[in-house]
Design goal:
about 400 residues, mainly alpha, 19 helices
Length: about 400
Amino acid sequence: MSPGIQLAGPLRTAVNALIVAVNRLDKSVSPSDTLSKLHARKFTLKDSIYILHILSALFWLTLMQVPPFPYKLAIPVLYALALLIPFTSQFFIPATPVFSWVLMFYSNQFLPADHRPAVHVVLLPTLESVLYGANISDILTRYTHPILDIIAWLPYGVIHYTFPLVLAALIWLFRPPALRVFAQAFGYQNCIGVFVQIVLPCAAPWYEIIYGLTPAAYGTPGSAGGLGRIDNLFGGEGYARTFASSPLVFGAFPSLHAAWATLEALFISALWPEYAKWAWGYAAVLYWSTMYLSHHYLIDVVGGACLATCVGMIWSRGGMGVLGSEWAQEEFASDWTVSDEEETPIAYRSPNPANVQAKGKGRGHRHTASIVSLIRADERAGEEGWSPIAGAGFVFPPERR
């Protein structure tokens, strides 16, 4: 960067973090490097999860009709090439659960209808009335207004699809060891959710509004529900066409919209506690919007939030998660600190000023905090300028008074 260019504080921090993030990437494009790592790797029982991914991919690729054979073979071929090249494998290996979810979500539409379970139309509204005393989602849809439509549309129809990418980018820049954990939790959460939606297909509130409680058939096109009002407001048909061609029409329970928002809020609360209230505020608005736009019942929202919470608990208890591979972990966790000669970005500085004075005196502070423990604080506690907990004045163990 030119000495004459002065950047503002936040922008300078972001630029410094980007430079560090780019520098820690493995820029090799030689497959022999990947094969050497693979040959030197000591496989454990945890790595058997990759066998499940391979079997799942074979099943869904076999069912896939669009693109047809042999064109669909390009999918595993390109994915294998991405795994062989070190530069791309550092992204594709941690994202394997996400790709498994995408493949499952898309290919489930090719399952023969006579091999599918019956669609539940009455189950969700009945459970909601029994558990909560009323059909809450129906009550929330009785009064609509263009302003409320916009408020519901932004989190449900816009932010929902972009927030995971933005959060992953921020984790990559400022909390890189946690990126692999987030990718795993996000991917496996969605795999579980879609699997439940396939084996327990349930109609959404929009189906009850349009067709009543009549039995549903798998050929029924999806509906944009309340998002149709957004199409009318802007004079388009984007949401109507998108939901009409959805690969999974009867996937009301659990709500993955609610699951995404909950998991994102959990990670933000752990990694950036000062922004937790905003993350949970976003999640609360999204919970409401799923029902206001007639896409989910309250029980769907509760189910999605519980799914995300369970996944978060499993990953917080399981260290680096099911795929506890040091080889894959190194793709993100190795060489992510800057040298003493470089200026350390504020994002990597310790919140405890005492640690700055104690530089070079052996192992440093040890902090643990919920999901932040996933980045193995005990193994990284000795690294200068790193702490899993933000906030000034935090000292562990506590000082005697």
